[in-house]
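In response to reviewer comment 3 from the previous cycle, which asked for concrete evidence that the modeling workflow produces usable outputs, we include below a single protein chain processed end to end. The sequence was submitted unchanged, and the resulting structure tokens are shown without manual editing.
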Amino acid sequence: MRRAATALAAAALLAGCAAVGPDYQRPAIPLPAQYPQGDGGSAVLAADWWRSYGDATLTQLVDKALAANADIAQAAARVELAEAQLREASGAQQPALGAGANAGRTQLGAAVPSNPYGVTVTGNDFKLSLSASYEIDFWGRLRRATEAARAQLLASRAARDTVRLTVAGAVAQGWFALRSLDEQAIATRATLSTREAGARLAAERLKGGVGSALDAEQAEILRADAALQLRELQRQRALAQSFLGLLTADPALALPEGRLAADALPPQPPAGLPSALLERRPDIRRAEELLVAANAQIGVARAAMFPQVSLTGALGDESGALSSLLKAPARFWSAGFGLALPLFDGGRNQARTDQAGARQREAVGAYQAAVATAFKEVADALASLSAARESQGEFVRRDAAAAHALKLARARFDAGYTGYLELLDAQRTATAAQLDVVRNRQAQLNASVDLVKALGGGWEGRPGR
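The workflow returned the following structure tokens.
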């Protein structure tokens, strides 16, 4: 018993030795001191950031997509797969126990060479046994494999979060696109109604001899332009609605026409060091966990070049009669120690180690690229949001000036001071200015979604503190 305890203690000591292969260290990446073009804010944006727009329909669409989207379901299944793989890798570090039972009846003929009695012999054989095996993880191969599996699980969870963030952003931007098209369609219908009246007036003036054929043709061209533009907006709306139906797993989705969202926008990100991106963005977390896994696989490959040590044992009873199966004379046991040492493999183990090292260096590059892409996307989103916000006032003022110019042109035309072409040109300018206000508003909303996505979703508290 003392010898068995000593053997178990030695095995535990060996299993606790340091694992071969490099321990993970996050690559050093120089980070800028602050977000580009960002003055920062102090507000908190919850993880369900889409609710901050104050649009009930948008909230319903995003919630529906997060619950039913096929891409998210696939990502969730990959998480479950990674969890099972981690359990498998962890289980390999534990002893394996097995039980067996056999019952048989055998007859040996008198001429069978293995029969020492020279007469036909018939007998029973009953057997119960327990077996155990355990690999002593002396070089850390199993621990490194478990480390890699755990990192793969975390990477799959981050990938799922990336898909969720992408789907939520796509729904939000798809919804803003649809509402922008609705707003443009409303304005275009009003323009079409005005141009239809203008075309009728030009035709009547031509018949009455007070207008020219050129005025009538120009008025008809503008009417047709407005009609074609309205049909194109209707086509684009149908596509936007179909896209939202795909994201929400509702092919029959039907959304009534409405206005574009009000001026509400999510709060600006809080002031803090950009290093918070490394923890906040799920795609960066995924890239780092894949790097952790690749780093651990180096240890797995290196450990294969060292001896593999294992312990085996069996305990049971075997008898020719059931009545004596569980009695002491029928008992047997065995214990074993195994050592497998690779002597020559044609360089295969070294090649696998080199492959693992190359994959680790590739993962380092992927992680660095993910960080660089993240800061570019933040910079782009901040620049786009700032430009759209600053331009909105100019677009609104231009729209008001164009509407006033149209009013003046109509008064001048009615008084006979100008020709009809001047009125038509003023109408064209006023319509374009009105639509530009809507489109820039959509661009501002889209840029706000891009910023939220670039920052990894909602933020709570102040990063970098």
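Residues 1-13, 461-465 have pLDDT under 50 and may be disordered. We consider this sufficient to address the reviewer's concern, and the full set will be provided in the supplementary archive.
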